[in-house]
Design goal:
The chain has 214 residues and is of the alpha+beta class. 45% of the residues lie in helices and 14% in strands.
């Protein structure tokens, strides 16, 4: 996957990007969007990252874009197909991964706040963690999570609106698996408290768009 992207980047050096998108069949009115899409590819760390962030256009899907580009750059179709297949396998892995998140623990105790307000602001207590980032650098996962924790605490001055003073963060990385992290990034004991979630339901379904789990 990385080798294919490296090949694309090297071969693209011999072409003017404007000529590339023209040869790929883009009309002038669509050239800016196509150039942006090509730039994202040529600056991406890997193909999986580009597939995750690539913009949309009406001419090519991600797979078609790569194949068309490979044709212009004279990269063998077999090499292009193998690279795309590798990306697809990684996408399947990502889809099966647990949706990790960080729960912001403020030791909140409800004192008359309207439940509908709490429900709609529940998402503020959760930080979504990209599955792609976890898969791309598993070895540095904990260090990255610690950085996210410290940055969040600093940017919010240690206080979460409505929910109160931030005491710690709980990194929930799998079913019933989590790590407790202090605002300074240090690991601490997880006392096993149950994570509470404010929610509103309609016919048994949560009607608020929130992250995390009870």
């Amino acid at each position: 996957m990385t080798d294919l992207l490296a090949t694309i980047k090297v071969k693209a050096l011999h072409y003017d990007p404007n000529n590339i998108v023209t040869l790929m069949g883009y009309q002038r009115q669509n050239s800016i969007m196509a150039l942006n899409r090509l730039t994202l590819l040529l600056t991406a760390p890997d193909l999986l990252g580009w597939f995750n962030q690539s913009g949309f256009d009406f001419k090519y899907s991600n797979r078609e874009f790569i194949l068309a580009l490979g044709d212009i750059l004279n990269i063998p179709t077999s090499e292009m197909t193998a690279g795309i297949t590798a990306v697809n396998k990684e996408q399947v892995r990502i889809k099966k991964m647990f949706p990790a998140y960080i729960f912001i623990d403020t030791n909140f105790k409800r004192q008359g706040q309207p439940i509908h307000v709490l429900a709609f602001l529940e998402g503020r207590r959760h930080i979504h963690i990209s599955k792609y980032d976890v898969l791309r650098n598993k070895a540095a996962e904990l260090q990255r999570i610690q950085h996210i924790v410290m940055q969040h605490y600093r940017e919010n001055n240690g206080h979460l609106e409505l929910w109160g003073k931030i005491h710690r963060y709980l990194y929930v990385y799998d079913v019933k698996q989590r790590l407790a992290i202090l605002p300074n990034g240090e690991m601490t004991n997880d006392n096993g408290c149950q994570l509470q979630k404010a929610s509103l339901t309609l016919k048994g379904k949560d009607i608020c768009t929130v992250l995390g789990a009870n």
